[in-house]
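Journal club side-thread
Mid-discussion, someone asked how the predicted structure for our own chain would compare to the paper's figures. Pasting it here so we can look after the session.
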Amino acid sequence: MALVKCPHCNKEVEENKFCPECGKILIVKKKKKLSKFAKRNIIFFSVLLVIIGAIVTTSYFYISEKNKNEIFYNSEGLTIGEVKKHLNALT
């Protein structure tokens, strides 16, 4: 049996229902283990979150770069149609 510290008398005693030193009831909390299903779900949703984050980040930078190009072409005095022609030519 494992040794635990009695919360009443602070002595290390074997894991029992009662402390042999002071006679008080010992309440030992045991850690619950995750089931395989729960572990798979945690891994699945973590990977899914990373993939969604990568898609959102890539989309943001793609749209940001596209807007920079449109602002540059508009500052040159071109019309929207001409800007679209130039952007299509670049891609």
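Post-session note: The chain is about 55% helix and 5% strand.
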